[in-house]
Amino acid sequence: MTPNRPPASASSIRTTPGPTHLSAGRNPETRLQTFLQLFLRLCFPILVVITLWAAYGSASARSIAGKEFAEKVRVADADIQLNGVGVRAVAWVKGYAAGLYLTEKTRSTAGVLAAAGPKRVQLVMLMDVPATEFSKAVRGGIRKNSTEAELAALQGPMQDLCARIEALDKLKPGDVIDLDFSPATGLTLARNGQVQGASMPSPELYRGILKIFVGDKPVDARLKAGLLGQS
User: Fold this and answer.
1) CA dihedral of 104, 106, 109, 111, whole degrees rounded to 10
2) CATH architecture of the domain with residue range 65-227
3) Rounded to an integer, what distance in angstroms lies between the CA atom of residue 14 and that of residue 145?
4) What is the C-alpha to C-alpha distance for residues 230 and 168, in angstroms, rounded to an integer?
5) What are phi and psi of 194, to 5 degrees?
6) pLDDT for the residue numbered 7
7) pLDDT tens string 92-104
8) In this predicted model, what pLDDT tens digit does every residue of 195-227 receive, in sequence order?
9) Domain ranges of the chain
10) Per the confidence metrics, is the pTM higher than 0.85?
11) Is 145 helix (H, G, I), strand (E, B) or coil?
12) Would you list the DSSP string of 149-203?
């Protein structure tokens, strides 16, 4: 006969812990680390592309007043670089954004006027301007920055340039005006890439145009500072 065993106490009963909802869940810190690893794995390449695109965009063009100016352009079979940009404004009214291109950068008027090689003054219109008014502004700017002897020599070339400007009839927002100079052929005027007439072989006329923007009596002092890279 088997002797009776005393009943086991509750404390002596061992149980094997089974899976529960609490033990199955991960630690919050572990879940955060997993999420960050997944995010970096999926999004890091995209962030790299965006960063490179932003860097390339800032290096290839400069923006002012909502208009972009390429850091380099080609004039007379030569690459020239953006010296500076600015805006022609009277009070709150903005007339055009401008960029000055030279073979080498300079921060002085003397440096601009003495610069060798091709050049470009690029204007991007910000408002409607009758071509006749634009022509008057060119005449007035050249007169203010020229001696009587210089004006006498510029009468013919200036008349030719102003006639071509007036033939444009009306300048509209977004129109791009290029005033290019080539040592071999002289000055050319273009609107939106369309050259207006033959080149005008007058270095003195182009010098007069440069003085409109960066001369001793510029059309706009802030614009001058911008084109010289001083602001």
Assistant:
1) -50
2) 3-Layer(bba) Sandwich (3.50)
3) 104
4) 33
5) -95, 115
6) 53
7) 899 999 999 999 9
8) 999 999 999 999 999 999 999 999 999 999 999
9) 27-60, 65-227
10) no
11) coil
12) HHHHHHHHHHHHHHHHHHTT-EE-TT-EEEEEEETTTEEEEEETTEE-SS-B--H
